[in-house]
Amino acid sequence: LAALRGRGAAAGPGAWNDPDLLEVGVGEFAFDGTARSLEMNRAHFALWCVTSSPLIVAPDLSRCQTEILEVFLNRPAISVNQLYAGNAGDLLEEQGHGEEFLSRVC
């Protein structure tokens, strides 16, 4: 998501930020049953939601593990993605090994 830093205000109808593929449950985010893997998938989905990026699902949902399906069905996260309020989410602050993003929803 480094490519999206500072671009939140530029996104909007007809010009959404598109950081590439939402990889929940696939690739380096393939779920291996561990808590760490689940949290990585949740964080990945949350970042796509807060940046108002397209939520295009890659895996076959009929074959997804229950935990990954629950990530895709997270209504509060999806509502953040869909409640566009003049700008997409953007990086607010970096501290140590973490980043904090902010998205206006009203």
Task: Describe this entry's structure for a reader.
The chain has 106 residues and is α+β, with helices and mostly antiparallel strands. It has three helices and two strands. The chain has helices spanning 35-50, 66-72, 75-82, and strands spanning 90-95, 98-102. A two-stranded antiparallel ribbon has the order 1-2. Strand 1 (90-95) and strand 2 (98-102) form a beta hairpin. Helix 1 packs parallel to helix 3. The two termini are 23 Å apart.
What order do the helices and strands come in, and which of them pair?
Layout: H1 35-50, H2 66-72, H3 75-82, E1 90-95, E2 98-102
Antiparallel strand pairs: 1-2
Helix pairs in contact: 1-2, 1-3
Q: Uncertain spans, ≥5 residues at pLDDT below 50?
A: none
What is the rounded Rg?
A: 14 Å
User: What shape does the CA trace take?
Assistant: globular
The helix tally amounts to: 3
What portion of residues is helical?
25-40%
Helices and strands, in order, run as: HHHEE
Distance between the termini: 23 Å
Task: Give the tags.
alpha+beta; two-stranded antiparallel sheet; globular; 3 helices; single chain; 2 strands; 29% helix; 106 residues
Question: What's this model, at a glance?
Answer:
The protein is an alpha+beta fold and 106 residues long. The chain has helices at 35-50, 66-72, 75-82, and strands spanning 90-95, 98-102.
